[in-house]
Amino acid sequence: MAVGCGGDSESSAAxxxxxxxxQASTTMEAGKLPKAQFIARVxxxxxxxxxxxxxxxxxxxxxxxERVSQRKRFSEAIRLSLMAGIDFHIFDNVxxxxxxxxxxxxxxxxxxxxxxxxxxxxxxxxxxxxxxxEALFSKYNERARRYGLDDCLVDAQRLRxxxx
Length: 164
What we know:
Blueprint: E1 3-4, E2 21-22, H1 35-63, H2 70-97, H3 104-123, H4 130-136, H5 138-147, H6 156-159
Antiparallel strand pairs: 1-2
């Protein structure tokens, strides 16, 4: 199931003003955990995921051709490593866990903007800085923070280890 997310007046670092449709499903099923346990589990999952994502980013970056500019190598690592890591290690794990009962819509309102940011980062133009990545995830970050998913934020503080 695809969720349409394009055509609004909001801008982001990549693909501002372009029609855009999220390809992955952002529909949540009810899981077994109550809200407090869900938040704790997802935050733990994110803490563990970030270590893997940063390690993969470092490995990917080390394999790149040094004849290519540092700016282009960083942009490629953002697109091909960071975005894929967030998608696989955070988004997919949250979806598999399932939302607290009667909170499915609330979690969809969080993971929808996350998946949109990931897909925009992968498909629509280069990102050259941590600030651009953070801007891309601004709607997701706001909603995740409000829900209590502080360890899952994609912000400058969290992304400091990959700064070039």
